[in-house]
Amino acid sequence: MRRDLAWVVAVAVLAAVPLAGVGKYPLHLLIMILLWSFIYTSWSLMGRFGLVSFGHGAFMGIGAYVVTMLWNHFGVTPWIGIPLGVALAVVVAILIGYPCFRFRITGHYFALVTLALTEVVRLVIVALRDQTGGSLGVTPKTALAGGEPYSLFALQFADKAVFFYIALVFWLAALWVWRRVDRSMARYAMLAISQEEDAAASVGVNVTRTKLVITVLSAAMTALGGALYGQYQLYVNPDTVSGIGISLQIVFAVIAGGMYVQLGPTVGAVFTLLLAEGLRVAVGHDVHGLDTFIYGFLLVIFIIYMPNGILGRILERRGRRDTAVPAAAPAR
């Protein structure tokens, strides 16, 4: 009861932030944290069960580019483009996931397959430069040229506060999905599969279907996050919404925050955003690929020395302190 009350108070305080008159830049940072938290939580649905995917940059890119291309070239509203982008990401997830799970391609081999998927999607985006803008990216056509404050048809808003509440709702939805999975039988099935597939199958678990369901759910949510990211930024680029760099960022953020804790990906989003902003202020964009190098280096450090992530380590230490046996009083 006390925990639920704390959640309600925290969400209420967060929802009141735009009403407090914070500046545009702090509000922008909060929106980015919420959007990335949604994407990172989507990845953790797979990652915490041992399905380490480096292909979520592909799903994010599909969601962002499908919506933008349909709007720019055909005038299709994002209300239709977003479901189509999510559907395409689901199809790709099935085409990649089913053969891998059916033929037991797991561990490092599964990670390599998904890594190849990310690069293939990025190269396709770059190759279709006449439609996608190639490596330079593309800007969705604005529907606010006449000074309108918003366009529901185009899902474009001049006021950042509107998108803040959209991002807040989707972040809460991601946490709800995470909890539903955590309290479902699928969690126990995936835990059994991650330990020993043959043993799980022997007790009636459909290994291929269970893994595929989790993968499809994770891919669909990531594509949705990519679409929302593109709509907010009003600019998509293969290096910012797809590719190996984005996939590595997603994996690093979740592991850094704590993939086994509900709010771990959110902590990872805060950590990576502060890291990115610190690098931008310190060195700017003069050193190309520096952020990717640091993500990779810190990923190794976290895996070796802090596998449970920042929030996981905090909760672990607090649990040890709470369960510590008081020392015996000295004899008199």
By secondary-structure content and strand pairing, the structural class works out as mainly alpha
The CATH topology is given as ABC transporter involved in vitamin B12 uptake, BtuC
Number of spatially distinct domains: 1
Described by strand count, sense and barrel closure, the largest sheet is: 2 strands, antiparallel
Strand order of the largest sheet: 1-2
- Give the C-alpha Rg: 21 Å
Count of β-strands: 2
Distance between the termini: 44 Å
**What gross morphology would you assign?**
globular
User: Counting H and I runs of at least 4 residues, what is the number of helices?
Assistant: 15
Uncertain residue segments: 325-332
Helical fraction equals over 70%
**CATH class descriptor:** Mainly Alpha
DSSP strand content:
under 5%
The arrangement of helices and strands along the chain is: HHHHHHEEHHHHHHHHH
Mean pLDDT: 90
Q: In the CATH hierarchy, what is the architecture at level 2? A: Orthogonal Bundle
Account of the 3D structure:
- With 332 residues, the protein is mainly α.
- The chain has helices at 2-15, 24-47, 56-74, 78-102, 107-127, 129-132, 160-182, 185-195, 197-202, 207-233, 238-241, 243-257, 264-283, 290-305, 309-323; strands spanning 150-151, 156-157.
- It has a single domain, classed as ABC transporter involved in vitamin B12 uptake, BtuC (Orthogonal Bundle), CATH 1.10.3470.
- 37% of the residues are buried.
- The model is unreliable at 325-332 (pLDDT under 50).
